[in-house]
Each structure stands twice: as structure tokens, then as C-alpha cells.
Amino acid sequence: QIQLEESGGGLVQAGGSLRLSCAASGRTFTANFMGWFRQAPGKEREFVASISSSGAISYYGDSVKGRFSISRDNAKNTVYLQMNSLNPEDTGVYYCAAGRGAFARTSLEYFSSWGQGTQVTVSS
Q: Are 123 and 94 in contact (CB under 8 A)?
């Protein structure tokens, strides 16, 4: 497993933007597909985006398509989530996750390593 640490969360007004970062430790970053999930109070953890190990293929949850963008820098062992046009429904704890393999997945059960999460709050 690899260790993951998220950063970049905070409070933003509706319509604003944030960029989350997830730094991975260890030498196996390029052997992992990566993803972002989020969880609002009282709700289940929700898929946001994922990216293949090479960075060539990405997937998005329906609620964030066209607004969020996932990317990775394998030289820096870091994955990013650019979030634009934020709205209050995007509020929650955002988790970075990793899974072994080249092909990106969208279901929670395929991810074996998780960060502690970073809070994103969007005010109306």
C-alpha cells in the first residue's frame, strides 16, 4: 500500500474554484490508478473522479462532469482535482484513494489505500 495525504480543501463561495492535491509516498505510485471520492454528512461516500496509472484515461461522476478535472504528475507522485463552478452540493470531505493496476476504476471497493480526507465547504 501507499500512503496518501490530501491538501487544498477549504471554504469557498458558490461559483468559485479549488484545487485539491494528493501526495503519495512510496515507489509504487505509477503502479496505481488513483481516484477522488467525497462524503457529505449523513450520506454515503460518492465517486468523484478517477485516473489511470499513466494519466491517459479518466472518469467522472455524473454530478461533477464538465466542472471537475483530475490529473496526475507521476514525477511528483501527486494527483490533483481541479474543481470549478462549485456549488453547495459539492460540500463534503474529499478523499484521495489508490488501487493497484493500470486501469482506472469507479467503484469504491477497488481502491485499497485511502487518505484522511480534506474538508471542502461551499457557501451559497
A: no
Residue 113 has a CB neighbour count (10 Å cut-off) of 18
- Rounded to whole angstroms, the Cα distance separating 24 from 51 reads 14
Decide if 98 contacts 34 (C-beta within 8 A). Answer: yes
List Cα–Cα distances, 22 to 18, 42, 70, 124, in angstroms.
13, 25, 11, 27
CA distance 117 to 108: 15
Q: What is the mean pLDDT of each run of 10 residues along the chain (124 residues)?
A: 94 98 91 97 96 97 98 97 98 97 96 97 97
Side-chain half-sphere exposure of 124, counting CA atoms within 13 A: 2
49 within 8 A of 90, measured Cβ to Cβ: no
d(CA 19, CA 120): 10
